[in-house]
Amino acid sequence: MEDRYGHRISYLRVSITDRCNERCTYCMPHELQEWLAREDVLTYEETLRLIRIAAELGVSKLRITGGEPLTRRDVLGFVQRLPAIPGINDIGISTNGTLLARWSRRPGGDAGSTLQGASHSEAAPEETMAAALRAAGVNSVNISLDTLDRQAYAQTTGRDFLPQVLDGIDAAIAAQIPLIKLNCVLMRGRNEDQLIPLVEFAAKRNLILRFIELMPVSHSDVLDENNFLPIAEARRNIEAHFGTLIPEPTFRTNGPSTYYKVGCRDQRLGFIGAMTNLHFCESCNKLRLTCDGKLRPCLGSYLEFDIMKVLRAGASDAELRQFFLDVVERKPEQHDFRENYQPGRMMVAIGG
Ligand SMILES: C[S@@+](CC[C@H](N)C(=O)[O-])C[C@H]1O[C@@H](n2cnc3c(N)ncnc32)[C@H](O)[C@@H]1O
Ligand code: SF4
To answer: Rounded CA gap, 21 and 18, in Å?
Structure first.
């Protein structure tokens, strides 16, 4: 699939839930919200069918996200079915990390709450969720970690879960997931003091660390001059401590990050400058499928198309394929975040 601007679509981000066990200030609205009703969320069967169709059209990489994807019942049973889809060769998960160290089954062998109904599970009785995901074919995990300060973590996420997240990171390392990335959303006044500790934390564990600029999703006041911290400034702060960062223009993962090597040692850092990098959208290869069955050609645009409606109305595979192609045709050249964008949908309900 290729759009009018030459973006080649090979990457589908699939949100499987709008629910989350955290309440990050930049992702959730301030006011209490209602979760989607179960019948308004794509079933796993429906999601798998849409992924299969996307794969027929050239999608080879998947990222399962949310909300918090590991809160959805039988997520493991779902993930285990992904490698069998012809054409899919790269399966990643984005998670807040809180549930990665949990037992996928309780020690002793009986099915734990995260695995209900997964009779086809191949998880060993005492595997962590991270190990079970690895066994299911997941090769990359992105774990959100904005700070190592427990109090600041609780303030940002609304939950005192930092110890669980750190255990989750250890579990992902122990599970030997080939690519583990830590994602830190930059917030002036909130985690500026955490850049160096996070770089050290990632270096010790040999993990890729990426810094992400705040984007105006969820509610319009998520981003203002007081809390926005551009990647260029974060880079300067890190350079003041570690010396020059060496650009690595040829190193890419699937995402929009630009990578640098820390000169004084063998460590890689990524910077995702959705707001300040004017070339950010040029290499975009993504489509998003929300958990309520909307195809979104761009995170930073209002455009979304209801594929659940046509699927539930009985569309054939050929009709669904055409739907994908029509959405790709309407992919914008770039996002609208710099145009005083007012979000129409929470990040937690899009799938970051
Ligand atoms: C929406 S979350 C979903 C997956 C999982 N719950 C997690 O936290 O990683 C995906 C990513 O989006 C990022 N994110 C959420 N709201 C954001 C915002 N307003 N600006 C930039 N990144 C944001 C999160 O930090 C996270 O790395
Ligand atoms: S960023 Fe992730 S963990 Fe935080 S509220 Fe959003 S979905 Fe939940």
So the answer is: 10
